[in-house]
Amino acid sequence: MKIRKYFDAEMELMEREELEALQFHKLKLQLRKCYRNSEFYHEKFKKAGIRPEDIRSLGDIRHLPFVTKEELRAEQQAHPHFGRFTVAPPENWAELRPSPGTTGIPVNTIWSHEDVKSIARWTARTMWTFGVRPGDIIQNGFGYGLWVAGISIHYASRELGCFVIPIGSTKSERQIDYLLNPGSTVLICTPTYALNISDQLKQKGISPKDLPLRIGCFGGEVGAEVPATRKRIETGLEIDAFDCYGLTEIGPIIATECSLKAGIHWIEDHLLVEVINPETKRPCEPGEPGILVITHLTKEATPMVRFWTGDVARLDKKKCRCGRTHARSPGGILGRMEDRITCGGLHLFPSQIENAVRGIKELSEEFSIELTTDPKSGEEQCALIVECLKQGEVPKASSQLKESLLKECKVLPEIKFVPPGTLKQSVFRAKRVVDKRGKKK
To answer: Is residue 414 a contact partner of residue 386, using CB atoms and an 8 Å limit?
Structure first.
């Protein structure tokens, strides 16, 4: 039986003009529902002097106010437990999906019964885009429980007719057990976790060539589209590695790469994606990096209207060579604005340092960025701490690293070499920046 190339060819290949007309139709319906059924949105729109009927084109969305995570958190504290941004009535609610809450109180979002069906369907489409097919054995290394990614992959695997191993983010040894038996063909987890599994295979003397694993998709953090990290994953696991993106407030997997790896494709029939200049708050020019701002077009229970993600990306609306017409973000997510390092005149993202470090084979995969304040001068200092695998190769690694850092970052932080095993090994989600500025030792 011939396997089709696209999961939903009619939608994925829709001409741009037709797609934007569909988006505008869905946007009008969504705004009316939010204005009518949510006190939160009704008040926001009224304060901005905007009514749904004032939005007469997709471009008019710029007149609507942004929604921030801090605002949603404050709303829920003022109106527990779910705030007033719920739109669907409680009898339609199916699942609670709070944000991880790593930087504050979790924001509770809700999936309705229709949302569950829709999310399963669109996640299946994104998985098809990077190569999953019926009969694949999917090793789902995303966390289950309240985190959105694991359960959405699980639901989508069922939609695709795949055999799923719901292992979650358990120990790497167990991951390897299932890679060997029954022999997973698809691995889905964070890039950091993929590198950890690769290291474990090497330590156990297991050649990745002996595994049936053929592709992997990695998200939950920046990394899969960092060239040096992608190369290490693909070499260490002998697979084709793809990037994906999602966030709790919007959806678990809302963009993935196609086989050409020319950027992550957005599901634009479900989302309206903008890239906004963080200074002017106006739309960026095509190809210009800015903050992702996303509006739900089909979410029923807790839709977000112009949600300020804080993630930095570019947007390309030109048709991809794969045939898909939905917009892409070349290079994936470039970083989080809150993770941008500003220290002693340096301005850079950890992903830039990651690409520099992981492109040098003499260095381990672990690194740490330490920000401190000089106790005498009061000047801020940035130091990159790396592990050289062999002491004798430090001079060579140092020269290569300095050259790579200047190429990637245009600046050169202080570099400190430490013996292998000094830095704590990242297993699931890496925390690279240690900010000690203004803190006593």
So the answer is: no
User: Is it true that the peptide bond before 212 is cis, omega within 30 degrees of 0?
Assistant: no
3-state per-residue secondary structure call for 237-271: HCCEEEEEEEECCCEEEEEEECCCCCCEEECCCCE
Most confident of the ranges 145-154, 208-217, 218-227, 390-399: 208-217
Query: Residue 408: its pLDDT value, please?
Result: 79
Which runs of consecutive H residues, i.e. helices, occur in 38-170?
39-47, 69-78, 113-129, 148-160
Domains of the chain: 1-337 (3.40.50.12780), 340-435 (3.30.300.30)
- Parallel/antiparallel/unpaired status of strands 290-296 and 307-313: antiparallel
Helix then strand then coil, in percent of the chain rounded to 5, is: 35, 25, 40
Rg (CA), the chain: 22
Taking only the tens place, the pLDDT of each residue in 419-433 is 988 988 766 566 788
For residue 303, report the phi and psi dihedrals to the nearest 5 degrees. -70, 145
**Most confidently modeled range among 77-81, 97-101, 182-186, 389-393:** 182-186
pTM of the model: 0.84
Whether residue 88 contacts residue 126, with contact meaning beta carbons closer than 8 Å, is answered with no
pLDDT digits (tens, 9 = 90+) for 237-256: 999 999 999 999 999 999 99
Residue 332 structure tokens: 């994936």
Give the Cα separation of 329 and 267 in Å (integer). 12
Q: Which pair of tokens denotes residue 86? A: 């719920």
Q: How far apart are CA 257 and CA 244, in angstroms?
A: 7
Phi-psi category of 219—alpha, beta or left, where left has phi over 0 and alpha has psi -120 to 50? beta
